[in-house]
Amino acid sequence: MTTLRIAIRALLKNKMRAGLTVLGLVIGIAAVTTMVSIGQSAGQLIQNQFKTLGTNVIVVMPKRSHRGGVRQGSMPTLTAEDSEAITEDCPAVLASSPLIGAGGQVINGNDNWNPKEMFGVGADYLLVRNWDLRLGGFFAERDIDASEKVCVIGQTVAEKLFQTTNPVGETIRIRNIPFRVIGVLVAKGANIVGDDQDDVLLMPYTTVRKRLYGSSFKNVHAIMVSARSVKQMSVAEEEIRLLLADRHKIAIGQPDDFQVQNTTEIANILGTITGTMTAMLASIAGISLLVGGVGIMNIMLVSVTERTREIGIRMAVGARSRDILLQFLVESVLLSTIGGVIGFILGVAGSAGIITLINTLSPSANWPLTISLPAAAIAILFAGGVGVFFGFYPARQASRLDPIDALRYE
User: What's the sign of the alpha-carbon dihedral 211, 212, 217, 221?
Assistant: First the structure.
């Protein structure tokens, strides 16, 4: 404690110099903290956006054909029966839903709207997408079997067509065909690229196929699957591949007529890219930590020169070399730790300000503010380490002074 009091007293004698000494370290820690926080926020944003796709979602799509090196359209190889088989015969699968894309103008009285997304789906679609209802209910298997003209709409569609009126029970027209609204989805907001996820209308896939397309074919555009857990995603993928290869009579060694996409893998790839960019930016910002450390070393060397006589007096009254070494090391670490704390606080404030600005300029972005407590501890410990590393040489120089020469120093 005595050494700490002496160090504090020495620093307070030269407040301006002490402040300028830690300035470089403050800037360095603040820059690193800001970059890491923004990088973590971007990673969290990506994870959150992929969570809106659903629970452990795997997407099965028809494989695109190629001719002469040119990619052609998708082959109609998937059916609703494939979706049912995936749910029944794949133990790692929780639920699945066929999906058929649709489009068209939706009319309610004098109001009309063209939803960004219109899908024909199965009864378990909301379970796969981990999506809840705000009002009403969802269509059941009996509605699918009967190709009932019912639909569930997103919040945006509800606002465009019904304003403040409760849409449940009302009738809308899609391609001049009347549909009864039976439910309204909970709002999800915009996705990572700014598209409105609530601008959606869902119908039974059989209704889309029979009444909108007038088709008797059984193919669907895709199958959305939910694995039972994240750990079982790869198992579920393999089970789906084996099952569909068997159902589609694909011989061993022949290419599949379908493709399986794991959204978690895509999220992990994007997270890796974000993490790499964060590390690069943090490394660049870390250069200022080196500059701050050199500044601490220079000031401590000046301090040793200025206090040579004081060092001689302390040695003359019994102070040992290690006591002098410890005193100057404590001063260096104290300087760097103060700079680390201030830098971290400024870094948090800076990242909060930047993320607030992003959310203000682009409300649909909805960036989360992520501050890591381990990062705070690492920042302060790193600052202390800089103090020890760059303060050791000046402290060693002070401890090796000859007491007689130090007392004679003017």
Answer: negative
What is the spatial distance between Cα 277 and Cα 41, in angstroms, rounded to a whole number?
Answer: 13
φ, ψ at 389 (rounded to 5°):
-65, -50
Residue 187, SS3 per DSSP: coil
Residue carrying the six token digits 């006589």: 309
Q: Yes or no: say if 382 and 340 are a contact pair by the CB < 8 Å rule.
A: yes
The per-residue pLDDT for range 86-140, each reduced to its tens digit, is 999 999 999 999 999 988 899 998 889 999 999 999 999 999 988 899 999 999 9
Average pLDDT, the chain: 78
Domain locations along the chain: 2-46+286-408, 76-256
- For 151, the enclosing helix (H) or strand (E) is strand 150-153
pTM of the model: 0.61
Question: Tokens at residue 335, please?
Answer: 């300087």
Angle at 314 between CA 310 and CA 315, to 5 degrees: 115
End-to-end CA distance of the chain: 30
**Nearest one of 114, 116, 118 to 99, comparing CA atoms:** 118
The DSSP annotation for 202-255 comes to EEEHHHIIIIIS-----B-SEEEEEESSGGGHHHHHHHHHHHHHHHTTPPTTSP
Instruction: Check: CB of residue 45 under 8 Å from CB of residue 192.
Output: yes
Burial 96-135 (b: 16+ CB within 10 A, else e): bbbbbebeeebbbeeeebebbbbbbbbbbbbbbbebeeeb
Closest CA to 218 of 102, 78, 73: 78
310 phi/psi in degrees, rounded to 5: -60, -40
- % of the chain with per-residue pLDDT over 70: 66
Residues in the chain: 410
Q: Any bridge partners for residue 174, and if so which?
A: 106, 177
Is there a contact between 219 and 74 (Cβ–Cβ < 8 Å)? no
Rounded Cα distance, 252 and 238, in Å: 15
Per DSSP, the three-state class of 155 is helix
